[in-house]
Write a structure and sequence with these properties.
The complex is a heterodimer.
Chain A: E1 5-7, E2 10-13, E3 19-24, E4 31-37, E5 44-50, E6 53-56, E7 65-68, E8 75-79, E9 88-95, E10 104-105, E11 109-113
Parallel strand pairs in A: 2-11
Antiparallel strand pairs in A: 1-3, 3-8, 4-5, 4-9, 5-6, 7-8, 9-10, 9-11
Chain B: E1 5-7, E2 10-14, E3 19-24, E4 31-37, E5 43-50, E6 55-58, E7 61-66, E8 71-76, E9 85-93, E10 98-101, E11 105-110
Parallel strand pairs in B: 2-11
Antiparallel strand pairs in B: 1-3, 3-8, 4-5, 4-9, 6-7, 7-8, 9-10, 9-11
Classes of the chains: A mainly beta, B mainly beta.
């Protein structure tokens, strides 16, 4: 069964360092989402791609976060510099097309900033 | 920003009982979806209901949608211990199908 792949699963980084997360969506899925989930809360949308284009990044802290999806396939989310408050689960999800369908989630990357 | 808001925040029931969870939202939607998350894992899609639908069934799940009240409910019948998880409603909105999640409901099913 096709899955959304994320790496790494866990990441510990020091404050002010750079960190990057990678996501490989299900093949053929045009829409890719990055979410941040703080423990005990719901996922918060950071950025949404349609193919290689960003269609929503209204909640992305653009002074330190960046995201790209070159060639409209896999994607990278970067934080530089990391802050203590960035500790959270970072979830990637993909869905088939522009018309809203179910989203498939990866297992996430648990980030701890020390 | 959160579009959907679930109620109650936490629910504890006995195995075999039914669990009802509610979700309210603020703006017009393309569809509403429910997801489950087991501790520390990714989310799993449960069911999707479109804005022009009123009720949908999938196995032990029943979801209703009332667009006039901007609310939805998820019913899990004959609950099992394995249903213990967090449940989230998510609304799809706008031309780009932005998917926004609520804060979630923690369901505990006691054996």
């Amino acid at each position: 069964e096709a899955e959304v792949a994320q790496s790494p699963r866990y990441k510990i980084t020091e404050k002010s360092q750079a960190v990057a997360f990678w996501c490989d969506p299900i093949s053929g899925h045009a829409t890719l989402y990055w979410y941040r989930q703080i423990l005990g809360q719901g996922p918060e949308l950071l950025v949404q791609f349609q193919d290689e284009s960003v269609v929503d990044d209204s909640q992305l802290p653009k002074d330190r976060f960046s995201a790209e999806r070159l060639k409209g396939v896999d994607s990278t989310l970067k934080i530089q510099p990391a802050e203590l408050g960035d500790s959270a689960m970072y979830l990637c999800a993909s869905s088939l097309g522009r018309v809203a369908t179910e989203a498939f989630f990866g297992q996430g990357t648990r980030l701890t900033v020390v | 920003s959160q579009q959907g808001e679930e109620d109650p925040q936490a629910l504890s029931i006995q195995e075999g009982e039914n669990a009802t969870m509610n979700c309210s939202y603020k703006t017009s939607i393309n569809n509403l979806q429910w997801y489950r998350q087991n501790s520390g894992r990714g989310l799993v899609h449960l069911i999707l209901i479109r804005s022009n639908e009123r009720e949908k069934h999938s196995g032990r799940l029943r979801v209703t949608l009332d667009t006039s009240k901007k609310s939805s409910s998820l019913l899990i019948t004959a609950s099992r211990a394995a249903d213990t998880a967090s449940y989230f409603c998510a609304t799809s909105t706008g031309a780009n199908s932005k998917l926004t999640f609520g804060k979630g409901i923690t369901l505990s099913v006691r054996p």
